[in-house]
Design goal:
It is built from 3 helices and no strands. By secondary structure, it is mostly helical.
Length: 106
């Protein structure tokens, strides 16, 4: 019985009839293409909307804070820690951390 019902459900037409409009809002609405970039004719002055200044300012501040945070974040790489630990151990043992420069003579 279950298998028969599953077959019936899977073989139904998936497309709804054209006369059935779900939601009662009619056909989907979209702006017709006008042939101009951003819908503005050449030479027409752009008028900002109220939210644009706040949005741009917010993104600028957020970008600045993130950039500063990344620039000043602590160095937590294992390689840096190992180098500092090796330098500390060499100082305790009395080894030289700096080596004298020698000239190469061919």
């Amino acid at each position: 019985m279950f298998a028969r019902r599953l077959v019936q459900l899977s073989t139904r037409q998936s497309a709804a009839p054209a006369r059935l409009i779900r939601g009662g809002h009619g056909a989907p609405h979209y702006n017709e293409p006008g042939g101009y970039l951003f819908g503005r004719k050449p030479g027409q002055k752009y008028e900002k909307e109220g939210w644009e200044t706040i949005w741009i300012g917010g993104f600028t501040i957020a970008f600045g804070l993130i950039a500063a945070g990344i620039y000043y974040k602590p160095d937590t790489r294992i390689r840096t820690w190992a180098r500092q630990e090796a330098e500390r151990q060499m100082r305790e043992e009395g080894d030289l951390l700096e080596y004298k420069h020698t000239e190469y003579k061919a």
